[in-house]
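LOG
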Amino acid sequence: MTIAPQAIRKLGPGKLVVASHNEGKVREIAALLAGHGVEPVSAAALDLPEPEETGTTFIANAELKARQAADLSGLPALADDSGLCVEALGGEPGIFSARWAGPKRDFGDAMRLVEQKLEQAGEDAGRDAHFVCALALAWPDGHIESFEGRVDGVMVWPPRGTQGFGYDPVFQPIGHEQTFGEMEPEAKHAMSHRADAFAKLVAAVF
C-alpha cells in the first residue's frame, strides 16, 4: 500500500506576518509578495519578540521563527533564514551570518571579518561562495511549508555598492559584473537566493 504525499496547503488573501525585524529583509520580501493578494505586516510592527535561533540548518531556523510568529499573531507567518556560505571558510558564516555582525548588526564589521579570514586562508583557498535562503510558511494551527533557494558567486573586496543589505556589497553572483550591493533591487530580485526560494513558494502555495 502506498501513502499519497500530503497536498501542499494554499495561502489565501489577507494579512501575512513577515517574521523578521530586519527592515531590509522585510522590504525585499514585501516586494516579492507584491501582486499575490496578501498584505504583509512585519513582526516588528506587531511588536512580536525575536526568538532565539537554535536550529542547526537554515530550514530549521526559518521554521522556528515562522511557527512562533504564527502562534503569537494568530495569522499565517512567513519567515526567512538566509546566510552567506564561503567555501574556503568551511561554509562559514552560514547560519551565523547575522551573528557575525554583532549585537549592533554592523555588517561592515561582518564583511571585514570574512575578508580577514579569507586572507588567512590564503589565495589558493579561492573565493567561491553562495547565498542560501530558506523560507518557512506557518499557519496558526501548526501546519508548515518550507522551501530553499541558492545563488552562487564569488567574494570581492573592497565592498562595492550601497543597494541591498547585509553582505551584498562583497558578493558578486556568477555571470554578473556587479555585486548585489551595486544592482538595482529589481535586478537582484530576478536572480537572488531569495528570489529562487520565492519562486518555489509561489508556485506551490498561490
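LOG (cont.) second protein
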Amino acid sequence: MKKLLNTLFITQPDVYLSLDGDNIVLLKEQERLGRLPLHNLEAVVSFGYTGASPALMGYCAERNISLVFFTMNGRFLARVIGQSRGNVVLRKKQYRVSDDEHMSARIARNFIIGKIYNHKWIIERMTRDYPLRVDVNQFKEVSHYLSSVIHEVRICEDLERLRGLEGQAATSYNKIFNQMILQQKNDFYFHARSRRPPLDNVNAMLSFAYTLLANDAASALEGVGLDAYVGFLHRDRPGRASLALDIMEELRGVYADRFVLSLINKRILNKDAFLKKENGAIIMTDEARRKFLKAWQAKKQEKITHPYLGEKISWGLVPHAQALLLARYLRNDLDEYPPFLWK
C-alpha cells in the first residue's frame, strides 16, 4: 500500500477492499492489512483480481473518488466513477491543449528534456563505473553535447523544431550505445535502431521492452482518466496511443534501455534466445519472452526515490506517478509538467 498525490496504490496481490465507516479496509484471507480514511483521497488504484465490496464502490462513486483496477502485470481493467462525473473536464482540457500546437510544445519539451537528461546520466554513469571498458573521451563529448541540446529544448516552442532536437540527441546517444554492451559482444551489438522488423538481437529486445513500457504508460493514463490516444509531442494517428508514447519518452533510456543492457551484460539471455526469419527479422523465442517478462516484472518491484516527489516508490509505479503529475498540470494544479529526471 502506497499513498501518492492523494492516490492510494494497492500493490499487494490478492487483497480485497471493503468499507468500514468512512475508511477503506484492506483484507487478505480475512486478515486486516490496513485501514485508511477515504475523505482526503482522490483515487484508489488496485493491482489484482480480488475486487472490492459494492458498499465501497458506492461510497467512492458518490464522493467522486475513482476506483481503478489493474491486473498484477499492470494492464488496465476498469474504473468505477460516479454518475455524470469523473474526468470529462480533464479530457476536454487535454483535447484543447492537443489541438493547440504552441500549448502542446510547452508540455512536449519537458518530455524531451526528461529523455535527453536521462540519456546524459546513463552516459555519465557508464564513464564512472566502467572507465576502462568505454571510450571516456567520446562519452564525455556526447554528454556535453546533450547538455547543450537540453538548453535549446528549454527555450523552444515549436513542435517541429523540438522533434529535430530530439532526433539529433538520439543520434548522438545511439552512436555510443554499442559500447554499453559489455558482455557477449559477438552476439549482441547495436549499430542503428531497426524497428519493423528488428534486424538484430539487441533491436529485438529493445522493441519488446518499448512495447511493454508503452502498454504500462497507456494503462497509467487510463487510470487517471486521460486519453492515451491524444498526445502532445506525438500527434493523432488512428490506433496509436500517442500520449503513452509521449510520457514513455523520458523513461525509454533509464527504464527500457538499461533493462535490456542488464539482460545482456548479466547473461540472462544469450544467442539461443533468438530466431531469424526468412525476411531477416529477428524474433525472440517463447522461452526467451517468458524470461524477459519475468525479469521485467521483477524490475517493476525494485524501489527508487522519485526525483520530483521525493518519495520511495517501485519502478512499476513511475508511469503512474508521471500520469498523475500530467493530470495535475492539466488541471492547473502545477505550473508545468515535471519530467522524470534520473541521476
